[in-house]
Structure formats: structure tokens, C-alpha cells
Amino acid sequence: MFVCSCFGVTEEQVRSHAEAGACTPRQIASACKAGTDCGGCVRRIQALLGRGACPRRELIDQGAPALAELPEAA
Q1: pLDDT single digits (tens) 4-62
Q2: Which end of the chain is more exposed for a tag (fewer CB within 10 A), N or C?
Q3: What are the chain's domains?
């Protein structure tokens, strides 16, 4: 299902970016532009990210890169 109609970003893509370390809507926006046009999807992105801790926060705190490289979509 699409989260961002402006840029055609799906829930799966948002989840992939989150698993790669994007913990905030701003980081998701940096990764795929979702939320940067009309802003109508920002609340949905927040809901997908949840209110819990970032799964990679501990690694980030130890100096690991915040965003891992994702494979190009086919």
C-alpha cells in the first residue's frame, strides 16, 4: 500500500528504510523523499515507525552508520 502518493513510496519501502536505520520521519524523507511534498503522509510514516526505540540505535550510538545502503528497487 502506498504511504506517499507524491513520490510513490510504499509501506514496504518505509519499513525497509527503518530496518536500515531511519528512525524518524525526517530520516525517512532523506532516504526516499516521502513526506517532503504535501506532508500528508507524515503521520502515517510516524505510525509505521512506532513510538519504540530505533532497532539500530545501539549500533548508531557505537558509531555505526545511521543509514545502511539499500539495494536498488527493481
Answers
A1: 999 999 999 999 998 888 888 999 999 999 999 999 999 999 999 886 556 566 666 67
A2: C
A3: 2-61 (1.10.10.1100)
